[in-house]
Structure formats: C-alpha cells, structure tokens
Amino acid sequence: MIEALGVPHTEVEVILVNGESVDFSRPLMDGDRVAVYPRFEAMDVAPLLRVRDKPLRATRFVADAHLGGLAHMLRMLGFDTLYDNHFQDDAIVALAEQEGRIVLTRDRELLKRRTVTHGCYVHAMKSEQQLREIVERLDLARTARPFTLCLHCNAPLRPVDKARVLDRLPPKVQAHYDRFSTCDACGRVYWEGSHWRNMKKVLDGLLSNVHPPGTDNSG
C-alpha cells in the first residue's frame, strides 16, 4: 500500500499502525491509522525498528548513471559516493547490498528491488537542487566535511606542501596559491581557486544554519 502511493520501501524506516511499530507484512484493516517515517538522524529509533534488522548509520551512497553531478557535489561535501556513468542497475543493487550504501536514483523501479534496503528517489532535475533535496531529506548538514574527498575517485584528500607538488601546478597557480591538498589514489592536486570559491558559496548556503560563523570546514 505504501509503494502504491508512490513511496519506495527504501525510503521507509519506521511504520506505525495505530501507534504500534510494525513491519511491511502487517495487513491493514478499515479504520487503521498509518504513520510512515523516513530515516532518522536526530534520535535512536532502533527499539522501534521493525521493517529491517538495524538502522543504517553509515552515510554512504551509490548514484545511478543520471546523477553524476549530484555524486560529485556529495563528494564535495565529504560523503563517500560511488558513481560511474556505465553502472547498470544490477551493479548498483550489488554495491548497495554489499557495502550498505544508500541508492540515489530517478528510477522508481530500481528502488523497488527487494535487496535494496535504503534509497532515495531524486525529484529535482538540476545538480544543485538535487544536492539541497538530499541534504535536507537525510539531514546531512551536521555530518558534512567539505573538501575532504577527491571529486574524481572518491578517495580521501590530505594536505600537501607546495614544494612537493610544484612541478604539477600551472604557472599562475604557482604564483598565487599556497594551500594545496592531494589525492594519493589518482594524484590530482587541489587548490582554492575560482571553482573552489564558487562551490564554497553553494555549500555555505546549505550549511549556514549548522556550522557557526568562522568555522573552517574546507579540510
């Protein structure tokens, strides 16, 4: 009945029928009052959980082939997000099941796969709007760690001395920037250039109500 109303089971964490926590197998009777809740972050709902064995606490994603922009922006926020524009549905389902990842997709049928336990149907069409939608729906702002993951390969970034990467920097970057980070997996070097500043404005708008002024979350 829940999926018939357009809500994939992957977006459901707790179901209450007449105030009692139940699982998906509970039959409905005339007059039943049903409340359906998504994933909780602000409180521990484990004692109420009936729809699956345990709540999902590690926030990791796998995005379908249509959500590359969203995947890169989630990485920018510091969330482990797998993406490949050649991903087939079976591969996405396998990654979600094996690694406990939340599936992000614009395909409702994918979220109806029985082995997919957590997922979000993404309503927005543009990447920035998609990011805001997911951040707000899953309450991600409090756990964001911006600019700590490589945008290309999803691996952690680490600070690096300018002298160690000088030979990989364009002349203008050598002259105007002093703070750098690098990815040990792919060797890319990042600095706080115009792209970084533009993205920081976007992320600051999402996180402004969470991180106090002056807090540096750039990693």
Report helical residue fraction: 25-40%
Gross morphology:
elongated
If strands are numbered along the chain, what order do they take across the biggest sheet?
A: 5-4-6-7
State the end-to-end CA separation.
45 Å
Total strand count, please? Answer: 10
| Main structural class | alpha/beta
Radius of gyration, in Å, reads 20 Å
Which regions are unreliable across 5 or more consecutive residues at pLDDT < 50? 211-219
SSE blueprint and pairings:
Layout: E1 14-17, E2 20-22, E3 34-37, E4 61-63, H1 68-76, E5 81-83, H2 89-99, E6 102-105, H3 108-111, E7 119-121, H4 127-138, E8 157-160, H5 162-165, H6 171-176, E9 180-183, E10 189-191, H7 194-207
Parallel strand pairs: 4-5, 4-6, 6-7
Antiparallel strand pairs: 1-2, 1-3, 8-9, 9-10
Structural write-up:
The chain has helices at 68-76, 89-99, 108-111, 127-138, 162-165, 171-176, 194-207, and strands at 14-17, 20-22, 34-37, 61-63, 81-83, 102-105, 119-121, 157-160, 180-183, 189-191. The chain is built from 7 helices and 10 strands. The chain is an alpha/beta fold and 219 residues long. The strands form 3 sheets. A 4-stranded parallel beta sheet has the order 5-4-6-7, sandwiched between helices. A 3-stranded antiparallel beta sheet has the order 2-1-3, with no helix packed on it. Strands 8-9-10 form a 3-stranded antiparallel beta sheet. β6 (102-105), α3 (108-111) and β7 (119-121) form a beta-alpha-beta unit. The longest helix is centred in the last third of the chain and has 14 residues, at 194-207. It folds into 3 domains: 3-48, Roll (Ubiquitin-like (UB roll)), CATH 3.10.20; 61-143; 146-219, no CATH class. Helix content is 27%, strand content 16%. The radius of gyration is 20 Å and the shape is elongated. 25% of the residues are buried. α1 (68-76) packs across α4.
